Model the fold of this input.
Amino acid sequence: MRQTVTETGKVREIKGNMVIVAPNMSAACFGCMNQECKAGGGLITAENPGALPLETGQMVEVSAPGISLLGQALLSLLPPIMGFMAGYTLTRLLFPGAGEGAFAGAGVILLFACAFIVYKARAKFPAKRVYRVTRLVNHLMINHLMINHLNSCQI
Done:
């Protein structure tokens, strides 16, 4: 089974086979501090490869392959981890008399330096997510899901 990341939202704009979608805000969105997401207003640009008959204001489901998100996660996490390992190892080789605290400290410094570089690189060259419109969403289904969610939240 192929894993995908799926969002539902309302079509804001249609440009040829590209669609701008405003996703429904989940409970997690309200407490999120992700500035990349908020900078674009949380809008998703998606392809409409199936040439679905879309209109502005319709509810649609868009999805992106999970493997693309995994690749982005690895590109974000591996450089800082490698930086820590390099800092620890280089300090151990260059200053063998230093203690474990010095080795770990150098590793942590390079970890944060690499994390900062990755952050700046991602801000300058944002990752392209490949979202595709997968289907039109029935309004009755959304109302049913919202009612079920509200019922499960009641104490």
